Amino acid sequence: MVYTDYLQRVLFEDVDARCVVVRLQDVIEEVNKRCADTPAVAQRLLSEALLLSALMSSGLKFSGRISLQIRADSGPLRMLVADCTDQGGLRGTVSVDSAERLPEQTSDLIGELSGNAVLTLTLDPSEGGQRWQGIVPFEGRCLADAVAGYFERSEQLPTVFRLATDGKVAAAIMLQRMPGDDSDSDGWNHLEHLLATVEDGELLDLPAETLLRRLFHAERRRLFPARELCFYCPCSRERVENMLLSLGPDELASMADEPEPVEVRCQFCNQSYRFEPSELAALYPDEAVQGPPTLH
Question: Are the C-beta atoms of residues 47 and 28 closer than 8 Å to each other?
């Protein structure tokens, strides 16, 4: 089956390494539509983050999601989040300071983060497993460099990324050394050299199988079936209610005392959830939360 948005994996038979190709089109369109007011440079950076989270999801061994997050204390980029489930569901959001002038290139936007931001990778199982986070200072000339540096230092897994985006389509390829014997440095270096020859146009235009065949035609490799990727946000009214409950009865009481309804908007999919004061009061079954008196 041919997918518009997909992830394609390949293992090399003679070198302890794997390669993953990701292509996004419908996901990019959907995310850009939901953050239409976001500057173009921030949208492109979000596209890169979505590519990286999709690539990293190829290594998930459980049901859940992997999330990439950047938070900055100052500068134009304040927050960037992208995550992908083990089933290929992607979502993302980016926040910039509108009061600051944004550069035109994502590399310039990233350049202001050095020493000013943290990179967080989160593994979040959906079936009661233990949540895990890795938090490191943001380092690198681009988002791909920062993630590759994390794998190198924290996981001891040499990793190389190549990313390309034209605003409508985004594509990427990842080459990663597998855990275990690293004695075959010549084989790994040869794969790195081959990957360095790929051009942006090839990444954006060629199907994954064609691209992998061109790059590694002389290498023994095992190709896995492509996996479809799509936009997916798990937000729901029930989840928002649980979030409101986590605020505690006093905070809910204060909100229920207001005459106007409360509107909660998902930062990922822009879906709005509206709660009347009486609905807020009903979230707690006891008398801890009381709405305003009914007028007759």
Answer: yes
